[in-house]
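Materials and Methods. Structural model of Cell division protein FtsI [Peptidoglycan synthetase]. The 393-residue sequence of Cell division protein FtsI [Peptidoglycan synthetase] from hydrothermal vent metagenome was retrieved and submitted for structure prediction as follows.
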Amino acid sequence: MKTKLIIFFFISTWLALTVRVFFLSINSHSHYVKLSEQNTIKYERIAPVRGEIVDIKDRPIAINKLGFRLQLAPHLTGKKNKEILNQEMQTLKNLLPSLNVEDMLKNYKKKESYYNHNYIDIVHFVPYDEILPVYSILNLRENIKIIPAPKRYYPYKNIAAHMVGYVSRANKKEIGKDKLLGLIGYIGKTGIEKYYNNYLQGKSGIRKVQVNASNQEVAQLSYAKADEDKKLKLTIDMELQTYMSKLFEGKVGAMVVMDVNGSILAAGSFPNYNLNIFVSGMSYKMYDSLSSSLDHPFTNKLIHGLYPPGSTIKPMLGLLYISTDLSSKWGVDCRSSLPLGGRTFRCWKRKGHRHTDINKAIRESCDDFFYKGSLILGNRKMSVGLKRYGLSS
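The predicted structure was written out as tokens:
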């Protein structure tokens, strides 16, 4: 009896295993094939190329310089792999002498984590001409990845700086809002670059590849292109913009030139700054020098400057004086105050400007000159004349 039970147990177990093997190999074959394929298929996102910005005559204002970023495999900081990390760093230094090993290690350790399984950016940009001679050597190294990485470049440097704006490295908060920035690395921070960032940034592509057990690529299965060749055309004319900048060399102020249809042909705030210094990051010393300047180069005086409203009307009043009965030779003796209608209107300069003609009045913004000139001109002529310049429209 005992022998029969043992035989029955073994036969039952064998039948159960046979049925299970049949189920796995026949009925569930397609299911496990699918799972196996997923294990050998890898999806890679392709970064879009940021769109260019051009002026009304297609002159390039913001373009992309071709280059590459370097990435290193994760988990090389442990005792077992530390020697590999040092070897890779030395290889990069030997092939690309311009690189700084300390900076590369700093960038690597900042992102290195037990939970991170992605390659880590250690150099954000290496020019195309530097990479080209050593590309084939680096491409053979298992722990190093070379990724195309265009870098924003502004050919006109400081011209139209406040209007065009600049791109810079995206911070954690910005990447948290837009995961694509983790792939691209840069975002529009000010001006047109910021306002049209979504359009200029574009959409990523995706590449589907098959890899073997060593994670080496075997075949490309599909490829969806990322956005490229986008262009944003502005109404400004960089020839006029350059001329405006020359007029304001060494001066502080702001100026806008508009077409009769309302489009902006040129606009500038002065002093300005070289947009290219923001792309790769500037030293603290340079930033402190710009931010602490009494001329406030970071302030866009076109939209953020606060000025007494009377000062903005003075140049137009001056033109009206010249075009009517008041000749360019007419002047006043500014004593800093004008009693009128039971109150006293004062000039900004307490001691007065003394004898002032129209040139001096506009240059030094003499209030008294324009008070007295407006009284002579009269309300009606002022109203008609100022409407020609777009006021009250």
